[in-house]
Design brief:
Helix content: 40-55%
CATH class of the largest domain: Alpha Beta
Largest sheet: 6 strands, antiparallel
Strand order of the largest sheet: 6-5-4-3-7-8
Number of helices: 15
Shape: globular
Number of domains: 3
CATH topology of the largest domain: C8orf32 fold
Number of strands: 11
Order of helices and strands: HHHEHHHHHHHEHEEEEHHEEHEHEE
Radius of gyration: 25 Å
Length: 383
């Protein structure tokens, strides 16, 4: 099932490493605690790009290998069509079927080629032999690449296993120790933290095509915590992801296919704890776009300066530093803004400033925030 990839278990929620992390991020107020959860992840977890993409590469290599096999064309079409449909519904779950088959193909063709070209030539055409050799070489190259890339991680994380790169679901303990994650890992860790910190609150997963995040209901409003600051309301999170997907041609194409086969674009699941942890579907809805909000940038600038305890003393006409905050205007809406959103948004901007100024914010003499459609631009003057 799809939810098994990101749903924490009772063992995950009771994990000692997780409980220690819960104590570290917890603050007196909800706004600080929710902000700390994402802030910790943003500072300490790296996106595990190989885990996100490697199985997709292997998947397509397998489809190519099926196409090159010396079997009737109608059987090839059935095989390829079946795996494409399986991928559209849940590409990750197909991995458990694909890897054994890919492994079988590797062994099969290794034995076949070891017999000698004349024997292989009786069964395969030159075109098929060359194509399958390329597929075989690609698979070997991917494996060697992973072995070389991750050999050093063993020096500081002896428990690391390369096979975890291909697992659909990792334990919370491994996510914290490895400091590597993809969206379903972020969502699992966030949900486990929320279950520890707010056991009486309603905790959710919100899914869109090829992405998942955790959420919590506070004062009848749902807040989504999704890898990076700021915290967003469900409505603003939908707008944010709709914008990202609308700019990506692959996302647009795959989303169109999913609509054709009547797969909901956004689904909200509530986490239920009984004897085990499970989820219950609450609603499905389409992503939608609203008008770009007009940000009161002067007020946002004042709040940021007050938070930094800096007085405006600019003496030059041109800013020394310009920081581009992509899609940040979508996060700030007068109808949606509240202390949780605002606090996390200012924290996100402060983190950007700290990164650029090596943590020394006392160098700042003036800040001016401007809006460019969906984006915010942070103009900074240095003393």
């Amino acid at each position: 099932m799809l939810e098994k990839q990101f749903l924490p278990t009772l063992e995950d929620v009771k994990n000692n490493e997780l409980k220690n992390l819960s104590r570290r991020v917890k603050e007196r107020s909800v706004k600080e605690t929710l902000t700390n959860i994402i802030d910790w992840q943003e500072r300490n977890l790296q996106y595990w790009i190989d885990r996100a993409d490697m199985f997709i590469l292997l998947y397509f290599l397998f489809i190519i290998s099926v196409y090159l096999l010396p079997i009737p064309s109608n059987i090839k079409i059935v095989f390829i069509f079946a795996f494409i449909i399986l991928a559209l519904f849940d590409i990750a779950s197909a991995l458990s079927y694909i890897l054994p088959l890919v492994g079988f193909l590797i062994v099969f063709f290794t034995v076949l080629f070891s017999v000698g070209f004349p024997v292989a030539n009786k069964t395969f055409t030159i075109y098929q032999l060359v194509g399958l050799s390329i597929v075989f070489g690609s698979i070997i190259s991917l494996i060697v690449y992973l072995l070389f890339k991750y050999r050093n991680i063993k020096s500081f994380q002896p428990e690391f296993k390369l096979g975890d790169t291909f697992k659909l679901s990792l334990s919370v303990d491994k996510i914290i120790k490895y400091r590597l994650a993809i969206c379903r890992d972020y969502a699992k860790l966030t949900a486990a933290l929320l279950l520890n910190l707010y056991p009486k609150s309603k905790i959710y997963f919100v899914t869109i095509p090829f992405h998942v995040a955790a959420a919590i209901k506070i004062n009848e409003k749902i807040y989504v915590l999704d890898q990076r600051l700021p915290v967003l309301t469900l409505k603003k999170w939908m707008e944010f992801w709709n914008e990202r997907m609308s700019k990506n041609i692959l996302f647009k194409f795959l989303s169109w296919i999913l609509r054709v086969i009547k797969k909901g674009e956004l689904t909200l699941y509530e986490i239920i704890i009984d004897q085990n942890i499970k989820i219950e579907k609450i609603e499905s809805k389409k992503l939608y776009v609203t008008n770009i909000p007009k940000i009161e940038t002067d007020k946002l600038t004042d709040k940021l300066m007050n938070n930094l305890n800096i007085k405006q003393t600019e003496r030059k006409s041109k800013a020394d530093l310009e920081i581009f905050l992509e899609n940040f205007a979508l996060c700030y809406d007068k109808d949606e803004i509240d202390e949780i959103i605002e606090f996390s948004l200012i924290k996100a901007i402060k983190n950007k400033l700290k990164n650029e100024l090596c943590g020394n914010l006392s160098k700042i003499s003036k800040i001016k925030i401007t809006q460019d459609k969906r984006d915010l631009i942070l103009n900074v003057w240095i003393k």
